[in-house]
Amino acid sequence: MKPFCPICANTGYRDHAGLCMDLCDCQSGHGAPVTIGYDAGEPGGDYGVVRIGPHTLYHGDAYRLRDRLGFFDAEFMDPPYRFDNRGGGAFRKSRTGADMIVAEKLDQGFDISIINPLRAGSIVIFCHNDQLPELLEYIDRRYQRFCLLGWIKRNPSPMCNKHYLADVEPYVHAWNHGHHPVGKHHDMHRWVTSGTMPAKTFKHATVKPLAVMDKIVRNMAGRTIIDPFMGTGSTGVSAIRHGKIFTGIEKSAKHFATAVERIRSAWEQNETP
Fold it and tell me: For the residues of the chain, what is the DSSP string, one character each?
């Protein structure tokens, strides 16, 4: 006789923030991703759910889903930047990633109100240099403390556009009481150095390298991490590598499929004795 599960009452699914679609831990096994379902809600509000071990991936709109998923120890965001992507001169033809950014509207910014200190103990968020004034003012009024950090790129784009080279990409780590940065001494630098990820690798122009994400994940306190702009899943891969439980949201069907495959692979490798 199958043992009774008090969490799901043997239905196989547990209620998670009112969605009632997450596969219960008693059902979670190894192997292929489990597609739990697809909710056809209001126009633009529908979403699909995939469960990989204890990790949950949502194919949908973060602005509609994020608040419904409740509180997490940590939140990571790499949202669309707001910047002028024109120019480049002779280097423009070789920058296929720049055209991908425009095509996917990743140069039009994001709604800053999605940052909610009541939904996560800490947050790490990347942004364009020109977005820093607005972001820092918003963060400063909502979190106990914050720190401005940077990813130093070994192979930055050669374009300047009457500015400095984009060889340092800023990110902010903000936290409330009990969720301060953690890590060994060598993890506590305010910078991380890594090359960039070619856009052709995962057919996405702004993928963060795992060397960058590993440092960030090591600095984030707690066990649960959510990424509402998951992209191709780098945050999830790093979370799994460091023993965290990951939840991700991604609107693009193409990038969501890539994230599912990458996170499935990371989960299988992590579970291999």
Answer: -PPPPTTTTTSSEE-STT---EEPTTT--SSS-EEEEEE--STT--EEEEEETTEEEEES-HHHHGGGG--EEEEEE-PPPB------GGGGGG-HHHHHHHHTTTTB---GGG--TTSEEEEEEE--GGGHHHHHHHHHTTSSEEEEEEEEESS--S--SSS----EEEEEEEE-TT------GGG--SEEEEPPPPHHHHT-TTPPPHHHHHHHHHHS-SSEEEETT-TTSHHHHHHHHTT-EEEEEE--HHHHHHHHHHHHHHHHHHH--
Work out the mean pLDDT of the chain and round it to a whole number: 82
Half-sphere exposure at residue 17, Cβ-oriented, CA atoms within 13 angstroms? 12
Lookup: tokens for 154: 């070994």
Among 255, 247, 261, smallest CA distance to 231 is for 255
CA–CA separation, 223 and 115 (whole Å): 19
**Has this prediction a pTM greater than 0.85?**
no
